[in-house]
Amino acid sequence: MSYVVINAIEVPRERRADLEERFAKRAGDVAKSEGFEAFQLLRPDNDEAGDRYLVYTRWATKSAFEAWMAGSAFGRGHAGSSGQRPVATANQVWAYEVVQHEES
Ligand code: HEM
């Protein structure tokens, strides 16, 4: 079964547009990585989600995710951050094994 890794990032309200613009210009290399299945950038929309955006990724296997993290595509995927003021004030990485999956 697949493997999901979510990067949960705290982004102040006034930086939301900046964050979304950075992702709009993202490298897109993640999709070319072996074992990649899905990517979503999720904008918070209730009080409990707060200021926490989620970067959702799904992979065929845990090792496919680890290989992307360890490889140059991860660096290229984050190159936009260098030289710019960081948009995120904090982050947490959450990893999950997919137990069941259904999609229309
Ligand atoms: C300190 C930790 C991290 C921060 C602050 C961060 C922030 C960002 C930002 C701002 C971008 C947009 C591109 C850019 O401006 O460079 C990006 C791209 C991306 N991030 Fe992160 N990120 C972090 C770590 C991670 C981790 C651990 C994952 C794993 C799920 C992840 C998944 C992605 C993906 C899939 C992209 C798009 C890459 C592509 O299109 O090839 N990030 N990240």
SSE blueprint:
Layout: E1 3-10, H1 16-24, E2 36-42, E3 52-59, H2 62-70, H3 72-77, E4 90-97
Antiparallel strand pairs: 1-3, 1-4, 2-3
The chain binds protoporphyrin IX containing FE (HEM).
Protoporphyrin IX containing FE binds at residues 5, 7, 9, 22-23, 26-30, 39, 55, 57, 77-81, 87-88, 91, 93.
Task: Label this structure with key terms.
alpha+beta; 104 residues; Alpha-Beta Plaits; four-stranded antiparallel sheet; binds protoporphyrin IX containing FE
Question: Number of folding domains?
Answer: 1
Rg over C-alpha atoms, rounded to the nearest angstrom: 14 Å
Major sheet characteristics:
4 strands, antiparallel
**Integer average pLDDT:** 95
Helix fraction? 10-25%
Shape designation: globular
Strand fraction equals 25-35%
* Unreliably modeled segments: none
Distance between the termini: 18 Å
CATH fold assignment: Alpha-Beta Plaits
- Write down the CATH class: Alpha Beta
- Cofactors and ligands: protoporphyrin IX containing FE
Q: Based on DSSP secondary structure assignment, what is the total number of beta strands?
A: 4
Q: Helix segment count?
A: 3
Strand order within the widest beta sheet: 2-3-1-4
**CATH architecture name:** 2-Layer Sandwich
H/E element order: EHEEHHE
> How does the helix and strand content classify structurally?
alpha+beta
